[in-house]
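Same chain as my last thread, 407 residues:
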Amino acid sequence: MRKTAPAPVAPRISRRHALALTLGAGASLALPGMAFASVPNFVSSIWPEAQARGVSRGIFDQAFAGFAPSQRIMDLTRTQPEVVKTTGQYVGDAVSSARVSTGRNMRGEWSQTLGNVRNRWGVQPEVVLAIWGMETNYGSYMGGNNVIHALATLTYGQYRYNFFKRELLTALQILQAGHVAPTNMVGSWAGAMGHTQFMPSSFVSYAVDYNGNGRRDIWGSIPDALASTANYLKAHGWRDGETWGYEVDLPGGFDYGRAWDIDRQTLGQWQAMGVRRTGGRDFPRAGDQGRLFLPSGAQGPAFLLVHNFDVIKRYNNSNNYALAVGHLADRILGVGGFARSFPANETGLNKAMRTELQQRLNARGFNVGTPDGAIGPKTRAGIIAYQRASGLTPDGHASSMLLARLR
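reply #2:
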């Protein structure tokens, strides 16, 4: 979901199979501190601000017709995932053979549009396609929620009230401008819209009218959606002709603790530490800044991530997401899979498991501070110390295997 502000913290679950469970129009959600006695009072409170933004009464009434706050949507804001995917599981699911094949077909079908988009915005077609594939599986499912009603539910329920109220008012302005009809403004439960899932504020800032019909239609016009995605990336600093990162090989006896401390340095400096691009190839620009990414520690593939990886994260602030987008783009382009596989026996750690890992390290005398489930520098240092003391590769990776050993 595209945004100019951080995404909601609730997990992204399958929207295909969610049931639309709503309350009656006169009811209020069972939440503490509710500011509105009823739905009609809430809707009335929104009208003056919408009017001040130039929204007509007719558009406003059409948008709110039949509105009833959705308990399902409010439940999603509180849902915590019971199972957490590892990076390997996430990327494996996201970059499926079917998604790669469809992406290649779409590259052929929309080659002229993608070529024009590349010339104008300087973003490689495969990257735009990969985001489209990741967000809505190339438009096969753009979310089944009425965006106005979803945003109104979140505002009414006082979930990140200021943020979602602004998005709601902005969505009403989009309707007023005639870019989409109220019944066609569909998206995710959190209000992300169209083929490549823009939040309303991102739509206003970055959506473009590629086909020149006077509307920025990211729902019904694939060219508008693809161009808007490229414009978003370009506006956030995408560098044409550069990649997102490189899979690399690490030398024997590599100092993982030092690498964690370094964070970023030039690719040439990483080379001086013995880091090499897989396949024996050179880095095209040794002066590029890169950071080492070890999603499975020493047991899985290693990557040096460069500038464009961080641009992808402006679309969705997740290392796993950005890695999947980059890998899917490469696969659409014809590049093979990673040279090194992710460990097959690793499972994800949820917050409770990460907290337990910290508690067990503390109990063994490897001080990681107050257990909070967040893996930061102090926890990594404790893990490295434990691994060294136990004769393990000291990579600082908090894994399910490590937790099992500590148990």
